[in-house]
Design brief:
single chain; 297 residues; alpha+beta; 8-stranded mixed beta sheet; 6 helices; globular
């Protein structure tokens, strides 16, 4: 039973451990590390990511930090080129071309996100896990600040392992065998004249197992999750809405403020996120790279 797996978890980790990552040894000697909140996230300092090779000790330490904190922030990564971003992403897995939400075409492996002054944002303002409508959703992504407003436009991340741990054992046991249907078109209307890729309906386990740590995390989100497999939207809605509301609890989150030359990495397998659209008066240019993921189990 899932409840037996959850019973050993405490909602809030001790100062020396985060979520179910307590067993991960982390004593970095090559860089500084400052946790962002008691729930997740860390800022790594005194690092030039361009100088990190995939097989080095420092790369191993960064990957252990990624397993432990789920969201990593690297400041002062000055002037990273597209080749640099691809190499940094390669420290964590294989880079892939990202499909857009409208699912009409793929984007370049390094995708530039430009928002001109006065323009509204699109899509990322709703809580989501990236591309959960894919059969193999991304492992994670990098986002790099090229031109960043003086304030605002942060990203809020939610620890989906902790979301699961807030549930009663009986509720978690009810969810354990369920699968949820995800679609790129839950909140995006199709253009009848356009040709789309096949991202309409795919089902994933509601509770997935992290392939590297074995930790359990909730894997549903309000942007792409339509209903539970075998249930109607009406039957699924009250339960899903309850889970989505837990994602909004600040004690389960961290918030990242961007600066020019800041690079942020997150683990899409156990993290939900939401873009905050609170400053549309200044130009914003970001570059993003997606890392190929596995089949959720």
């Amino acid at each position: 039973m899932l409840s037996s797996s959850l019973s050993s978890f405490s909602l809030f980790p001790s100062s020396s451990s985060f979520s179910s990552m307590a067993s991960i040894a982390l004593a970095p000697k090559s860089f500084g590390l400052r946790p962002l909140t008691g729930a997740m996230g860390a800022e790594l300092t005194n690092l030039d990511l361009r100088a990190v090779s995939c097989s080095s000790q420092i790369a191993d330490e960064i990957r252990r930090a990624f397993q432990k904190y789920f969201v990593l922030v690297f400041r002062n990564q000055v002037g990273l080129s597209d080749a640099d971003l691809l190499a940094i992403a390669g420290l964590f897995g294989e880079v892939e071309a990202r499909p857009v939400v409208k699912a009409q075409y793929g984007l370049p492996k390094v995708h530039e996100l430009v928002r001109e002054p006065g323009k509204l944002g699109h899509y990322g303002e709703i809580w989501h896990q990236d591309c959960s409508y894919m059969r193999h959703p991304p492992l994670g992504a990098l986002l790099y600040g090229v031109e960043v407003p003086a304030y605002g436009n942060d990203t809020v991340f939610c620890n989906m392992e902790l979301v699961l741990q807030t549930l009663s054992p009986a509720f978690a046991d009810m969810l354990a065998p369920l699968r949820a249907v995800h679609s790129a078109f839950k909140m995006v209307q199709k253009d009848p004249m356009a040709t789309y890729l096949a991202y309409d309906n795919v089902d994933h386990p509601v509770i997935r197992t992290h392939p590297e740590t074995g930790a359990l995390a909730l894997f549903v989100n309000p942007f792409f999750t339509k209903h539970f497999l075998g249930m109607t939207d009406e039957e699924s809605r009250p339960i899903l809405q309850h889970l989505f509301e837990i994602m909004t609890r600040s004690e389960l989150q961290c918030r990242v403020r961007y600066e020019k030359d800041t690079l942020v990495l997150w683990d899409n397998r156990c993290v939900g996120h939401q873009a905050i659209r609170d400053n549309t008066r200044q130009r914003r240019v970001m570059r993003r790279v997606e890392i190929r993921g596995d089949l959720p189990r």
